[in-house]
Amino acid sequence: MSGSPPSRPVIDVRDLRTHLVTRWGTVKAVDGVSFTVAEGETLGLVGESGSGKSMTCLSLLRLVPRPAARILGGQVWLDGEDLLTKSEAEMRRIRGRRIAMILQDPMSSLNPVFSIGMQMREAVGLYHGLRGRGLAARTAELLAAVRIPSPAERLRAFPHQLSGGTRQRVVGAMAIAAPPRLLIADEPTTSLDLTIQAQYLGLLEELQERHRLALVFVTHNLGIVARICDRVAVMYAGRIVEMGPVRRLFTRPAHPYSRALLESIPRLGAPAARLTAIEGQPPDLARLPAGCAFAPRCASVMERCRVEAPPETVVEAGHVTRCWLEAPGAGATAAGRA
Amino acid sequence: MSALLEVEALTKHFPVRRGLLGRATGLVRAVDGVSFTIDAGTTLGLVGESGCGKTTTSKLVLGLERPTAGAIRFQDEDVLALDRAQLRRYRRAVQAVFQDPYASLDPRMRVGTIVAEPLVINERLDRAARRRRVLELLDLVSLPARAADLFPHEFSGGQRQRVAIARALALSPRLVVLDEPVSALDVSIRAQILNLLRDLQQRLGVSYLFIAHDLAAVAHMSHTIAVMYLGQIVEWGPADLMAREPRHPYTQALFAAALPIDFDTPRAEPAVSGEVPSPLRPPDGCRFHPRCPHAMPHCATDPPALRPHAGRQVACHLY
Amino acid sequence: MPAEPAAVTLPEVDVAAAAARRGWRLPMFPVVVIGLFMMVAVAAPLLGLPDPTAQALRDRFKPPAWQEAGSWTHPLGTDRLGRDLLSRIVWGARVSLAAGVLTVLVASAFGAAVGLTAGYYGGRVDAVLMRVTDATMSFPVILLALILAVTVGPSFANVVTAIAVILWARYARVIRGQVLTLMQLDFVAQARIAGAGAWRIITRHLLPNTLGTLLVLVTLQIGYVIIVEASLSFLGAGIPPPTPAWGSMIAEGRDFVTSAWWVSLFPGLAILLVVLAFNLLGDWLRDTFDPKLRQL
Q1: C24/A contact by beta carbon, under 8 A
Q2: Would an 8 Å CB–CB cutoff place C22 in contact with chain B?
Q3: Domain range summary for chain C, segments of one domain joined by +
Q4: Is there a contact between C10 and B171 if contact means CB atoms under 8 Å apart?
Q5: Interface pTM, i.e. ipTM
Q6: pLDDT, tens digit, for every residue of C231-272?
Q7: DSSP-derived secondary structure for A183-210
Q8: CA distance C192 to C196
Q9: What separation in angstroms does the CA of C2 have from each of B40, B198, B203?
Q10: Which of the four, A28, B194, C162, C233, has the lowest number of CB atoms within 10 Å?
């Protein structure tokens, strides 16, 4: 976590739209998502299943599952180049080298029939054009960078011989091999034990510091967000409903969903009172209601919310939300609360 | 008041078999001398990381596995010495809700049939009486009566867990084993289900054995917490005490790693390094000593016993 | 009493709309062909066809109706002994379909039982049953049928027995595999926790969840059995004359393929059509079978 001076962001996403065609209809998986991440900054992407956070990440890499999913519009500026205008060949050169991604399940990220040394050499050799002894040295270096003990021996091991935490470190090592400008981590610690998770998060911070990475961390665990993220974007039904600095959003959430989420999570050390549950069910993405997608479950819903989707409003510098409560003239509508 | 469930020196070893003849070449000490009690109407939270033995413990309590050694006493009766008829009664009194809402309901049966199944197996009710009871149970978990005629795949994850809870309550059990009941659910739904479980406990006086890796949820739901490591209990005591002031180094590491959303306390560095050793070859002496930041020479040779200290029980040479 | 309002509302399910959305279409070709053959086979005695075993040596080797020397009294011609080919094919359908259906029913029932038992109990029971299954699967069907034909004499019963006795192993293997997967799922443990015994778990929980696979397998195997039966009849080890059977009909026309080609061709076409239809139906079932369709 560091307070880097404002500069051109590493990644600048503007109005990204990705649709998914399912047999129940067209799903707006990513519906006008915009955010930026600067060098050395960590953006947390928070949301539940169906919120669009994973699809957003895949869209950045242009890896959405074809032909059902299609990126319909928007811009993804990586260091001043719009990725959505690149050819597939150009994207292949960018993936892994300039943008890397770590996924949740390390076992399926690694090929079970090859040793991790072979897999790493493939990636590292590709990025740096190294061979032979230089390649072996660099690979061992990478394993040491992710704090794997006796790296030279571990290179000969196969994925199933390693523990979950170690596998995830190997995946991390491959991800920073280039090193990339942007690292996307999609729930990398969900399958790890608590104490291992703590170690891994420390490792990610260290790697980010060393390589000045922009980091997008996707999770549903707000505790992790509080620990390692600088800013956080809360997603719901394909849209970012609130985004801002972590501390601010957690202490003074502007959107009812963020607020409800924070109130519904059991906190260590808080009195064991009744949890404030969020009513209703996660939205059916193929049949979204008109207006704000959260309206059916919102405790502060107004008539307007059911009819019109709220635009992005600035609550404070660096803190935005999509909610009619915060929109200009909100005070006047208080009387119209449903 | 004597406890509802008493577990004493419970042990379960799994032999590792190799070769054509299946000779036992090693022993997985999944559960190694575990003791705890659960009082009526209370919740015991069981926490630990992979390989600690909490799932095996729950299977032993449910009677899905037979212990290698040790005793289980339910309402003062020795469970392991029960004959078939008595075992049936035990089964009715101890039920379970598992983690995966998509695997715990038979996809080919309607919800009404699923919830009624324990009744069909264990009680002699006629159809009408069964139907009434099923509707009662669905109401208890806030599902509409119409749900009884639908199939599991027509429900969301949270709703399916409600069905699973309704089924678990069908026989009016005294103890329900909850094995990660909300981990597979969306965050916004978890609070609903946890609230429901607490309400049911207050209403029906049922006890819970609550197993989860979300420490905050466990602390919220439990009256007592027991922490397991490599098949043994290293600390157990009242939930709020354990959460506020853990004493065992492993418990401290666990709670530190649980990442409370608290910006004011300085962030502690992960206190514990390394991986959990394999239960095939647990370290000698105190099983935690290779990773313990406070390890002393004799920790490697003398296994510490659970001793009372500061309102709880700890197994550590520091105390 | 703490109030938890019915936070759960269930969506209305419009069954007709759902079906229309899914486009549940039956595969026409297999269904028509199989339906046709089934109906014809069942109604054979009522169709007013000439006696399939009646010999009329004056009418031997009459070609099909659209040929020069043919006539519509024998639409597909006659064979070496003057017997009407169409009638023989219809009556042969009875034999082939009966053999096919009966054999797979017997084999699948027995095989599924073995598979369920092996998968449920595991351990030694599983090991023993699977060794028996493996040994059975490796025995050639035709050889067994020939042995039976030679020792006990060829008959319909022998054909069904010979094939079923070996075919069940295939079902046992597949069903056991599925049961092993099902056993991992929590609802089986839940049934046990509710107090269910082996019988209830196997019949109420495991079996219904394997029916889909069973149905697909049965459909695909009927075609196989029909071919085996035809092969056996062709070799003379199957259904004995004078009962018409497609395989023996092909054998009878073997020597006249160039001159009286219709004697072998039409029974061969019949086999082709029926087997193809069953295979296509089996494929379709495999692609679409889904427990979610049960409600429709």
Answers
A1: no
A2: no
A3: 30-37+69-295
A4: no
A5: 0.83
A6: 888 888 888 877 888 888 888 888 888 888 888 888 899 999
A7: EEEESTTTTS-HHHHHHHHHHHHHHHHH
A8: 5
A9: 20, 10, 9
A10: A28
Tally C-beta pairs within 8 A across A and B.
Answer: 120
Using N-to-C axis directions, what is the helix angle for B111-122 and B84-93, rounded to 10°? 140
Contact of C3 with chain A, judged by CB distance below 8 Å, is answered with no
For the entire predicted model, the pTM comes to 0.82
Tokens representing A256?
């009812």
A286-310, pLDDT tens digit by residue?
888 888 999 999 988 889 899 988 9
Task: Give the nearest chain B residue to C5 (CA atoms).
Answer: B142
Map A247-276 to HEC letters: HHHHHCCCCHHHHHHHHHCCCCCCCCCCCC
In this complex, the residue of C7, C11, C21 whose CB is nearest that of residue A280 is C7
User: pLDDT tens track of chain B, all 319 residues?
Assistant: 568 999 999 999 988 876 655 566 788 889 999 999 999 999 999 999 888 899 999 999 998 889 999 999 999 888 888 888 888 888 889 999 999 988 899 988 999 999 999 999 888 889 999 999 999 999 999 999 999 999 998 898 899 999 999 999 999 999 999 999 998 888 888 989 999 999 999 999 999 999 998 888 999 999 999 999 999 999 999 998 988 889 999 999 888 888 777 766 666 655 677 778 877 888 888 999 888 888 888 888 888 988 999 899 999 988 8
Task: Parse chain B into domains and list their residue ranges.
Answer: 5-314
* Domain covering C30-37+69-295: architecture: Orthogonal Bundle (1.10)
Q: Choose from C4, C8, C9 for mutation: most chain B CBs within 10 A.
A: C8
What token pair was written down for B225?
């917490």
Superfamily classification of domain B5-314:
P-loop containing nucleotide triphosphate hydrolases (3.40.50.300)
Per the CB < 8 Å rule, is A277 touching C7?
A: yes
> The tokens of C243 are what?
């009962």
Residue A203, both tokens: 């490792």
Q: How far apart are CA A274 and CA B202, in angstroms?
A: 12
The distance of A78 to chain B (nearest Cα, Å) reads 32
Chain B contact present for C1, CB below 8 A: yes
Q: How many domains does chain A divide into?
A: 1
Contact C274, C96 (CB under 8 A): yes
Q: Do A194 and B186 touch (CB under 8 A)?
A: no
When CB atoms are compared, the residue of C7, C187, C189 closest to B105 is C187
Residues of A with Cβ-Cβ distance to B216 under 8 angstroms: 223, 265-268
Alpha helices by DSSP H, chain B: 54-62, 84-93, 111-122, 127-140, 157-168, 187-204, 215-221, 239-244, 249-257
Choose the mutation target among C4, C193, C202, C203 for the interface with B, i.e. most B CBs under 10 Å: C193
